[in-house]
């Protein structure tokens, strides 16, 4: 009887897995009421127990979710009922239930994430003078038309299609780790693989290689189509000579559905969910192991480059715990793995010491000279942390506890108080009208003795700042002014001298982490060559980008987030921070 029950349970699990699926779709359209659409997705996806990612913007939606096939079908019907989604291509595929927790977590399939974003896919790491208009995107070619165009190697598909007198170029809009394991291959067609780490690198590649596209019929493709929408519009925005741009409708996924034997696509299609990749009937393996060069195309181990954190292929035989890997792009730029002999006589691979250069981001890091030369065992970076206005080292340490925990294996955070001590102030909790007598008014505030309070400090202060001379609390002159930073123009020289003492006494440091006014102070340190005058402020995007131009290639990164006035510690931001810091270990 027990065996019978176990068999029924196993059968039930198998049926549950067979009923599981993944749904992908996107739609570029003007969204008149984002909050209403956000409420719809929250309610619908939650009620259907769907997991995955939903991204909403004023210009459309981008959705990748998983769940029971019946639930996904109900979701599709609900979305179709909204007029905005007329003509949407819903890509629904049955697959196994997520079996690898690590992969499922990394791909966002262990929870439901619904966010409002500026861009459905991040096209550039910096604002363009004029963003491409997606309504000007390249013409869609069906899988059959795309196949025919490749087969004809530049001849007419139909009267309204490719220009007959133009050469044909095939452009892959995906990242290097995707093209490693699968791509279109047609001997008589020029194929361009940009070999980029991330999609936001593509515009720069297009700018640098525009002559290879000028005057050609450009056929573009990506996983599901969304990346080609913006990229094809960007190419067409270049004007004369760039008009003939076409994109594979539905991406590689729709092509493989039309041509199950693979057609002209060789290898596997990398996907951004727990399936990792989807192949055709053609079992040939295109990818190779980074270390031994043997055929291999399985990313399930999630091995990454120790410098840039891009996925790399390492076969089962070569893979080791805590191993150091360097991707082909980092190798191309001179990054290497060096060997070190451990105390037990075993040889270890480590990342070589590098001389750190000044870097900048919304939260700014800047360098200190390296403490020594030669190959040394892996160590932690020492990062000096500068708090914000009217804060202190202790408070900042508490606020960054989550960050410190996630960086514990690669960085030690060192906290110091700023040199300018500020008076203790309080804001009345009742109005002057309710209590006209000043002594009675102040007595209503229950304030702790100042000797039991931690001091509050600043790096930059207003010219009329008195500092902390009194021992008692002072009543604030006015409510909090969000523009107070405009008045905080003094105190830099004192702070600079103070930091020199800190560097000499407690250094060396590998970098500086600045938050709010601390970030302004770090920015001023970075900009000393330009002798810029500084005021405390939350560093504007444009200013961060201007600062980043002062630094050497590979020594800066800008991380944009929508988490508010904090240092983000959730994925994917913490992964970007870790990846950046790993460059300097």
Helix-strand layout with pairing:
Layout: H1 2-18, E1 20-28, H2 34-47, E2 51-57, E3 60-68, H3 69-80, E4 91-94, H4 101-106, E5 112-116, E6 139-141, H5 143-152, E7 168-172, H6 176-179, E8 182-184, E9 190-192, H7 202-208, E10 217-221, H8 226-236, E11 245-248, H9 251-258, E12 265-267, E13 269-270, E14 277-278, H10 328-332, E15 338-341, E16 347-350, E17 381-386, H11 393-399, H12 401-406, E18 411-416, E19 420-422, E20 425-426, H13 438-443, E21 456-458, E22 474-475, H14 492-506, E23 511-514, H15 517-526, H16 541-548, H17 573-582
Parallel strand pairs: 2-5, 6-11, 7-9, 7-10, 10-11, 17-18, 17-23, 20-22
Antiparallel strand pairs: 1-3, 1-4, 2-3, 8-12, 13-14, 15-16, 19-21
Keywords: Metal-binding, Zinc, Zinc-finger
Pfam family, one: Rhodanese_C
GO molecular function: zinc ion binding
Quick description:
This protein has 585 residues and is of the alpha/beta class.
């Amino acid at each position: 009887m027990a065996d019978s029950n176990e068999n029924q349970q196993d059968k039930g699990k198998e049926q549950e897995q067979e009923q599981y699926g993944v749904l992908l779709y996107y739609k570029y359209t003007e969204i008149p009421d984002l909050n209403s659409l956000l409420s719809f997705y929250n309610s619908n996806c939650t009620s259907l127990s769907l997991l995955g990612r939903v991204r909403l913007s004023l210009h459309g939606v981008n959705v990748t979710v998983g769940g029971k096939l019946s639930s996904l079908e109900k979701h599709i019907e609900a979305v179709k009922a909204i007029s905005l989604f007329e003509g949407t291509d819903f890509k629904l595929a049955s697959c196994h239930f997520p079996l690898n927790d690590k992969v499922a977590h990394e791909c966002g399939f262990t929870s439901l994430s619904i966010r409002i974003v500026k861009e459905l896919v991040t096209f550039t790491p910096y604002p363009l003078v004029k963003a491409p208009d997606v309504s000007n995107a390249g013409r869609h070619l069906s899988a059959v038309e795309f196949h025919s165009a490749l087969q004809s190697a530049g001849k007419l598909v139909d009267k309204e299609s490719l220009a007959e007198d133009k050469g044909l170029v095939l452009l892959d809009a995906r990242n290097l780790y995707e093209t490693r394991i699968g791509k279109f291959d047609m001997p008589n067609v020029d194929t361009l693989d940009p070999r980029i780490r991330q999609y936001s690198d593509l515009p720069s590649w297009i700018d640098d290689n525009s002559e290879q596209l000028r005057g050609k019929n450009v056929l573009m493709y990506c996983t599901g189509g969304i990346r080609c929408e913006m990229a094809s519009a960007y190419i067409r925005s270049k004007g004369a000579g760039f008009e003939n741009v076409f994109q594979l409708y539905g991406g590689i996924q729709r092509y493989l559905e039309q041509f199950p034997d693979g057609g002209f696509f060789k290898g596997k299609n990398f996907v951004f969910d727990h399936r990792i990749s989807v192949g055709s009937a053609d079992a040939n393996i295109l990818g190779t192991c980074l270390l031994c060069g043997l055929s291999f195309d399985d990313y399930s181990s999630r091995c990454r480059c120790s410098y840039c954190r891009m996925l790399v292929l390492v076969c089962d035989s070569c893979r080791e715990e805590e191993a150091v890997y360097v991707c082909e792009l980092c190798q191309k730029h001179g990054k290497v793995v060096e060997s070190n002999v451990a105390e037990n006589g075993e040889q270890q691979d480590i990342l070589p010491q590098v001389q750190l250069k000044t870097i900048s981001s919304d939260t700014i890091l800047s360098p200190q000279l390296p403490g020594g030369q030669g190959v040394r065992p892996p160590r932690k970076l020492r990062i000096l942390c500068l708090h914000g206005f009217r804060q202190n080292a202790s408070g900042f340490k508490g606020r960054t506890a989550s960050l410190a925990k996630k960086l514990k294996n690669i960085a030690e955070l060192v906290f110091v108080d700023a040199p300018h001590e500020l008076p203790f102030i309080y804001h009345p909790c009742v109005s002057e009208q309710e209590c006209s007598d000043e002594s009675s008014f102040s007595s209503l505030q229950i304030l702790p003795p100042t000797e039991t309070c931690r001091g509050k400090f600043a790096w930059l202060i207003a010219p009329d700042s008195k500092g902390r001379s009194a021992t008692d609390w002072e009543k604030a002159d006015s409510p909090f002014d969000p523009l107070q930073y405009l008045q905080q123009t003094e105190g830099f020289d004192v702070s600079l001298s103070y930091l020199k003492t800190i560097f000499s006494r407690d250094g060396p440091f590998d970098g500086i982490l600045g938050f709010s006014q601390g970030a302004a102070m770090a920015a001023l340190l970075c900009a000393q060559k330009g002798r810029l005058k500084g005021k405390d402020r939350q560093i504007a995007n444009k200013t961060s980008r201007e600062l980043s131009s002062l630094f050497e290639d590979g020594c800066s990164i800008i991380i944009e987030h929508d988490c508010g006035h904090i240092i983000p510690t959730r994925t994917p931001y913490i992964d970007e921070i870790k990846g950046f810091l790993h460059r300097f270990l």
